[in-house]
Write a structure and sequence with these properties.
mainly alpha; 0% strand; disordered N terminus
């Protein structure tokens, strides 16, 4: 599965998480405002992650010397971390949807991104420490970092959806959410 396919699948899963989250009524922002904020944040995150992947592929890191490959790989991991931290902040700033379990929904989504961002902070530190004395050692280090990145991002996808007709309806009407489906 390509990085773009994995990213699209992850974004689709995240969209389902908030679109299918909680039901009922509690204080907070309207479902439409919450969904718009969430979809906008996820759209920016998706674009940033895809751009980071494209830049890494275009850099020639796969055939570069270990020091050059490390530089490009660290930039890639740093971009993932920055995008995920930005999304975590934007998701937290989206507020609490005025639906039953709204706080749990909002906390679950922003918390998953915050945990993913922390995992990427750790991956970035590990990437910066990869030795470049020879290609074999560098490749082993990069593989370990890649596994850490995968774990951090998979944690985001483990959010359990709940059923909320109000959020689902708001998501179906919001253009920012429709962009995430592609």
């Amino acid at each position: 599965m390509s990085a773009a396919t994995r990213t699209s699948a992850l974004v689709g899963a995240l969209l389902a998480v908030f679109a299918l989250a909680g039901c009922g009524g509690s204080s907070g922002v309207t479902p439409a405002k919450y969904v718009r904020s969430i979809c906008s944040a996820l759209g920016v995150w998706k674009a940033d992650v895809q751009n980071a992947g494209k830049q890494l592929q275009a850099s020639g890191a796969g055939t570069a010397s270990p020091p050059a490959a490390k530089r490009d790989y660290v930039q890639f991991v740093s971009a993932l971390r920055a995008a995920t931290q930005g999304a975590a902040t934007a998701l937290q700033n989206a507020g609490t949807p005025a639906v039953s379990n709204g706080k749990q929904i909002a906390d679950g989504l922003s918390g998953a991104f915050a945990r993913g961002a922390q995992g990427l902070v750790n991956a970035e530190a590990q990437a910066r420490a990869i030795p470049t004395a020879n290609a074999t050692v560098f490749e082993a280090g990069a593989s370990a970092v890649t596994a850490q990145i995968r774990t951090a991002l998979e944690g985001i996808a483990t959010i359990t959806p709940r059923s909320s007709a109000a959020l689902r309806a708001a998501a179906s009407r919001d253009a920012a959410c429709q962009v995430l489906n592609g």
